[in-house]
Design brief:
GO terms for molecular function: serine-type D-Ala-D-Ala carboxypeptidase activity. Keywords: Carboxypeptidase, Hydrolase, Protease, Signal. It comes from Streptosporangium jomthongense. Its EC number is 3.4.16.4. The protein is an alpha+beta fold and 454 residues long. Helix content is 32%, strand content 15%. It contains 12 helices and 12 strands. The strands form 3 sheets. The protein has a 5-stranded antiparallel sheet, with helices on both faces. It starts with a helix and ends with a helix.
């Protein structure tokens, strides 16, 4: 094949009237280098313009037009007579539109925005939550120590990235460490003392756990306390369930658990760690909590903030810690919370405060907070907005926002780029919504679409 190629090349060159030089001829005919007094001037490099123009710093929307359209839409009877609204310019922080903007409104799950900002600011995006196994007080005693990771899983989670920490992996590592010292039977206990206080918030309605909205909040849980994959039903004692599952997995990996008279203990501080697994980083936990509106995960994040800020890991301590962090960021004004996830009907957040929280997370000056925005559902595509904005293709993918829903409460807070290219945030909140499933949601969607078109 090489010979054929060479022959064809020779024929082509001859046909073109050229003379093929041998290697000797090339050596003989190569010109001598000529010294130059100065090198030639550099050729200027001309680059093409950006494929997509930068967005976010376009002209401000006309206030009069925006205000007129939003004021009319806020009058929709589906929203009731307790409605607050705010639109904030990200670059300047200016309030572009407000209606009851400084009055606290029940935020429902938009509370998760406040918790998420505090978690990223306090813990840092790359922090993880550890679940450990320690040895003591004897060489044949071990304790499963909960670190507060509700994503810890006893099941495989195909298609989930990053993968949650695995209780099976923890059991395997524990068995390996024990068998390396010749131990195949141990006393197994568990420690969930990291969290304090009641397992359900005093301000929650009694039906939240039975209906499956949230599990009892404990420092040791698997699969968010759900009884089975895809089920909303929750176990009554997540810590005990996680412990029993761990014991079963240990047996699978060749280590038997002896009977103990008291399974729940407090592990000694000096106990030796023999195995551990870590959660996904906080930034990924925040994204998951916001996209899925995950109550269990957000409550865990609030308690992690409490621990980092030196407060009790209880409902009260977590609420105080979140507000303390927001205070350092100068974002606490207009925020009053009693839980992390927004199930408490006593929470109050002013629309302007909520829009400013989103603006802080959107700002290029706060890259450590950007996971709040990347975690927000996308209009018409993901999470709790996947089924919304379906009648307005013009804003599909252009709005990122967190929803909030309780009995008589509907809220929507997020960010968009206006038609003129201005990056803005918004919060629309109603907490005296009359009956009529979906009507208030549609009214809120129209408000957000008006902002995007501004």
């Amino acid at each position: 094949m090489a010979l054929v190629t060479l022959v064809l090349l020779q024929l082509f060159v001859v046909a073109a009237g050229a003379h093929l030089l041998t290697s000797d001829e090339l050596t003989e005919k190569a010109p001598e280098p000529v010294a130059s007094a100065e090198p030639p001037p550099p050729v200027p490099v001309i680059t093409a313009g950006p494929v997509l123009a930068a967005r976010g710093n376009g002209p401000l929307p006309a206030k009069g037009t925006l205000a007129a359209k939003l004021t009319e839409a806020l009058g929709d009877p589906a929203l009731g007579d307790s409605v607050g609204a705010a639109v904030v310019d990200v670059e300047t922080g200016a309030l572009l539109f407000g209606s009851g903007a400084e009055t606290g409104v029940t935020p429902a799950s938009t509370t998760k925005i406040a918790t998420s900002v505090a978690a990223l600011a306090s813990l840092g995006p790359d922090a993880t939550i550890s679940t450990r196994v320690v040895r003591g007080p004897t060489s044949k005693s071990i304790t499963l120590v909960g670190g507060g990771d509700p994503t810890l899983s006893a099941r495989k989670a195909p298609g989930v990235y990053p993968q949650p920490a695995s209780l099976a992996v923890l059991a395997m590592r524990t068995a390996r460490a024990l068998k390396a010292t010749g131990i195949t039977m141990v006393n197994v206990t568990y420690d969930d003392s990291l969290y304090t206080g009641p397992r359900t918030a005093p301000t929650w309605k009694p039906g939240y756990v039975p209906e499956g909205s949230v599990a009892p909040v404990t420092a040791l849980a698997i699969d968010e306390g759900k009884v089975a994959p895809g089920s909303h039903q929750r176990v009554s004692d997540p810590s005990r369930t996680a412990y029993a599952t761990f014991v079963s997995l240990l047996t699978k990996y060749g280590v038997k658990a002896a009977k103990v008279t008291k399974a729940r203990v407090r592990a000694p501080k000096e106990a030796q760690e023999i195995a551990r697994v870590d959660s996904a980083p906080v930034y990924a936990l925040v994204e998951r909590a916001l996209t899925l509106s995950d109550n269990d995960l957000t409550e865990a994040l609030a308690r992690q903030v409490a621990l980092k800020e030196g407060r009790p890991a209880s409902f009260e301590g977590a609420a105080q810690a979140v507000l303390g962090v927001l205070g350092r960021l100068k974002l606490a004004q207009g925020v009053r919370v009693f839980d992390g996830c927004g199930l408490s009907p006593r929470n109050r957040i002013a629309p302007a405060a909520l829009a400013r929280l989103v603006a802080a997370a959107t700002s290029p000056a706060n890259p450590h907070l950007h996971s709040v925005i990347s975690g927000m559902p996308v209009a018409g595509f993901t999470g709790t907005l996947g089924h919304r904005f379906v009648k307005d293709d013009a804003v599909h993918g252009l709005i990122r926002a967190k929803t909030g829903t309780l009995d008589g409460v509907n809220a929507l807070a997020g960010t968009t780029v206006t038609r003129g290219g201005r990056l803005v945030t918004f919060a629309f909140m109603a907490d005296k919504v009359p009956p009529g499933w979906g009507k208030a949601e549609a009214a809120l969607d129209r408000l957000a679409a008006i902002v995007a078109a501004g």
